[in-house]
Fold this protein.
Amino acid sequence: MFDIGIGELGLIAVVGLLVLGPERLPRVARTTGVLLRKARNSWQSVRADIERELAAEDLKQTMRQAAAAADPSADLRRAVEPLAEPVRAPAPPAPSPTPTDGSGHEQH
């Protein structure tokens, strides 16, 4: 997170010892460590949430593209069009029934 070497840490410790004194320095160091740990954990949590949201959005976009590519409606319309044409056309007139003699045979 920070680019601090061992020399800088030593200098900070000496200045902290001079400013705070030997009684308060361990408590301040412990509190500082706890606060830094909380800040780091919060940052990691926010970062994980953002990455999760981006992954979810990417997945949603991929699913939309796959659904659009797999949409069979255009193919179905092309396949049904030749079948629908005779249905739309008017039906030819039905032939007139031929008279029968009652026994099911046609009369001539």
About this structure: The mean pLDDT is 82.
